[in-house]
Specification:
leucine-rich repeat, single chain, elongated, Leucine-rich repeat, LRR (right-handed beta-alpha superhelix), LRR_dom_sf, alpha/beta, repeat, 9-stranded parallel β-sheet, Leucine-rich repeat-containing protein 57, Leu-rich_rpt, 11 strands, 2 domains, two-stranded parallel sheet
């Protein structure tokens, strides 16, 4: 892509606060963007070939939305965690194995998409995020859901298409969790904490495609309580 094209994009971004350059085969984060650190609210560089997010990402202090879906990122810089206004972060389809240590400092984060990466566990850093609404960790290599999940503030947690065979009973203590997606994992019925049914806020539990028949779920203690929540929620949105 020529310099003149990039320049035109930068000029538009300066006026709109939005920089979008997708599917252009970029191999690196455009350095020229640092001229706009105080202008930009949205950056979308999805469907490129970016392997590295430079530390200068931490300078975009007004950024609300960052999308880098379908790139070649293997790690994220700690500087990303300085983005105190960031509300939406889309990193689907990369090669991420973990999150930066200070990820919990992204205090405004509401939506986090990490589908199609190489995470092996639910990152403990997520428990510190107080504004979190939706977390998508589908299509990773997660095998178990640890105790720290109990502090997760999310309303929806998507763990579809992982390799989960164990879930901490602490998941029942998530204060705001309403939707839990666990489709196409490796769960035996005995490994599904019954407290999810009897003693949680969860009103939509999706568990198709595991190692048990769905009708067996209905025989579990607490299923009636779960159905009450499920029905009440359905009525609310009807």
């Amino acid at each position: 892509m020529g310099n003149s094209a990039l320049k035109a994009h930068l000029e538009t971004a300066q006026k709109t606060g939005v920089f979008q350059l997708t599917g252009k085969g970029l191999t690196e984060f455009p350095e020229d963007l640092q001229k706009l650190t105080s202008n930009l609210r949205t950056i979308d560089l999805s469907n490129n070939k970016i392997e590295l997010l430079p530390p200068l990402i931490g300078k975009f202090s007004f950024l609300k939305s960052l999308a880098l879906n379908n790139n070649k990122l293997t790690a994220l810089p700690e500087e990303l965690c300085k983005l105190k206004k960031l509300e939406t972060l889309h990193l689907n389809g990369n090669h991420l194995r973990q999150l930066p240590t200070a990820f919990g400092q992204l205090s405004a984060l509401k939506t986090l998409s990490l589908s199609g990466n190489q995470l092996r566990t639910v990152p403990t850093q997520l428990s510190g995020l107080r504004q979190l609404d939706v977390v998508d960790l589908s299509k990773n290599q997660i095998q178990n859901v640890p105790d720290t999940v109990g502090e997760l503030q999310a309303i929806e947690l998507n763990l579809n298409q992982n390799q989960i065979s164990q879930i901490s009973v602490q998941i029942s203590h998530c204060p705001r969790l309403k939707v839990l997606r666990l489709e196409e994992n490796c769960l035996e019925l005995s490994m599904l904490p019954q407290s999810i049914l009897s003693d949680s806020q969860i009103s939509l539990l999706a568990v198709e495609g595991n190692l048990f028949e769905i009708k067996k779920l209905r025989e579990l203690e607490g299923y009636d309580k779960y159905m009450e929540r499920f029905t009440a929620t359905k009525k609310k949105f009807a």
